[in-house]
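Late entry, flavin-adenine dinucleotide complex.
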Amino acid sequence: MRVLVLGGGVVGVTTAYQLQRDGHEVVLVERLPDVAQDTSAGNAGMIAPGHSFVWSSPRAPWILLKSLVLPDQALRFKLSADPRMWSWSLKFLMQCTPARARANTLRKHQIAVYSQSVLQQTLADDPVAYDRNTGGILYFYRDAASLQAGIAHMQILAEDGQHIEVLERAQIVAREPSLASAAGQIAGGILCPTDESGDCAMFTRGLAEVCRARGVNVRTGVTVQAIEAAGDAVTGVRTDQGMLTADAYVLSLGCQSPFLTRPLGIDLPIYPIKGYSMTIPIGNHRAPPAMAVLDEANLVAISRFGDRVRVTATAEFAGYDTSHRPADFAHMTKVARDLYPDGADYTRAEMWAGLRPMTPDNLPIIGRKRHRNLWYNTGHGHIGWTMSHGSARLVADLIGGRPTAIPVEGLA
Ligand SMILES: Cc1cc2nc3c(=O)[nH]c(=O)nc-3n(C[C@H](O)[C@H](O)[C@H](O)COP(=O)(O)OP(=O)(O)OC[C@H]3O[C@@H](n4cnc5c(N)ncnc54)[C@H](O)[C@@H]3O)c2cc1C
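Prediction complete; structure with ligand written out below:
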């Protein structure tokens, strides 16, 4: 079968890879000059089943309200005239019941765990260098009460098979000596030893090379303008370089996905939630982080990619604006410097902002809707790098008419 994959982020490229492995003739189109230059470019790099908790939790309405009146460094909710934001927010709030939050978290955890196993298979078959770090992820807390609440909260995932180790301050410093000078700021933490991290953009570029070598036609610099359909089938995709046709189409356009489906009468509930990251060379600094950590009090994530450190933070409602100012990075720089004063050359940080393609239930959209040959693999939100490998395999199995390894019911 000839399959056209729309979008060259980590989701599109992993999808193209899995489809090629199944023997399909695959073409991938991406508007930018290279793959992984949009949201997949600057994320925290965490492959984090241990971070599968949905944002649409019972605490979320209160956190959103609070951020309207109090300046918050982690969440910046702004009222806007955009009706899409209101419609999305309403759907999001409807997912914030304890029962929905628990069900969605467990579903997400299942996809994340499966995805990690697919990643391992991919790497066994086609090694890709991406500064992988398999040292686990430490989720740490700054006071005893939050630590206890975090441990209780983590039971949802622990009961679902997530391996966790509760570490006291001294045990954290023994495992991560570079945190020694900041030990007084840390009450304790939860280590998820099977979680990992690595540079998502580097992986995506590497996997795109593997795809090319396997015969996938990866076409960058091609913008999709419209999806054309007749009856229950897509008949072609109009691009700025002419019409492209295929037997099946996979839509993986991240935050842009709804704009291409709306003319088809399909309103995808994906809204952008902005985040910021800094990539900092370690240079000759002597105490860089060795393992990936998430500071649960500040919601700042810090990962080590080879000779670089990536620091990420913030969830902001800012529409489709990806601009950034130095002030947006002040808080996360302070947090990183306080934790790792000799960790990296903070004066040489490269700054970036990107948009998480969030759905109200925080689950990706996987499967088919109205058109029998249009498949969706999009809306991966805040852990799309984590879930991409598995969701790509699921879509490939669906297109191939094979049973999927985990249930996909309800994800379309
Ligand atoms: C600050 C931040 C931190 C994050 N940290 C993590 C993390 O630690 N772990 C994790 O798992 N996830 C993380 N994420 C989430 C993750 O980055 C995303 O879920 C993931 O990158 C989404 O991938 P995607 O392929 O769906 O979207 P994208 O990477 O945006 O890919 C979509 C592609 O479609 C292309 N496109 C759009 N419109 C068109 C068009 N008309 N024609 C052709 N091409 C088009 C775009 O150019 C883009 O390349 C983070 C995100 C942010 C913002």
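The first strand starts at residue 2 and ends at 6. Will revisit in the morning.
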